[in-house]
Amino acid sequence: MMHISSINQLGPEIRNARKALGLSQTDLSLATGLSIKFLSQLETGKADNPGLANVIDIVRALGGQVDINWLEVTASSDPDASDDAGAGAGADENPDGARA
Fold first, then answer.
1. Which of 11, 17, 30, 41 could cross-link to 46 by cystine, CB 3.0-4.6 Å?
2. pLDDT tens, position by position, 14-27
3. How many angstroms separate the Cα of 58 from the Cα of each of 4, 34, 54, 85?
C-alpha cells in the first residue's frame, strides 16, 4: 500500500509499485493511455503537474486505490492560504475536469 503525503514521493512510489508488479513503463502506458514520456517524467519527479485524473488512472492500473485526506492536501499545498480562503473551493468542480 502506498501512502503519499508529499508530491515528491509520488513518482518514486509509482515506480516501485510498477516494478514490484513486473511491469514496464510501456505496459503501464498501454494500461493507462498515458505516454511513456509522461510516465518517465512522473517517476523521476520532472512532471510539473501530473493531474489527479492521471494519478488515479495510474494507481488503478497498478491495482491500488486513491484515498485523499483533504485536510493534509490543503495544509501542505498552500501554507500561506487562510482556513477560510479554501473552504468550499472546488466543491462544484468536476474532479475529472483535469482531462479534456
1. 41
2. 999 999 999 999 99
3. 14, 9, 6, 31
Beta-carbon contacts of residue 45 (< 8 Å; ≥ 6 apart): 8, 11, 12
Distance CA 59, CA 56 (A): 5
Amino acid present at 52: L
Q: What is the residue whose three cell numbers read 491500488?
A: 64
d(CA 77, CA 86): 11
Rounded to whole angstroms, the Cα distance separating 32 from 61 reads 7
- Written as nine digits, the cell of 70 is 483533504
Nearest in space to 59 (alpha carbons), one of 10, 98, 100: 10
Quote the CA–CA distance of 17 and 34 in Å, as a whole number: 17
H or E segment and range at residue 26: helix 25-32
CA dihedral sign of residues 91, 95, 97, 98: positive
pTM for the whole structure: 0.66
Task: Give the per-residue pLDDT at 89.
Answer: 41
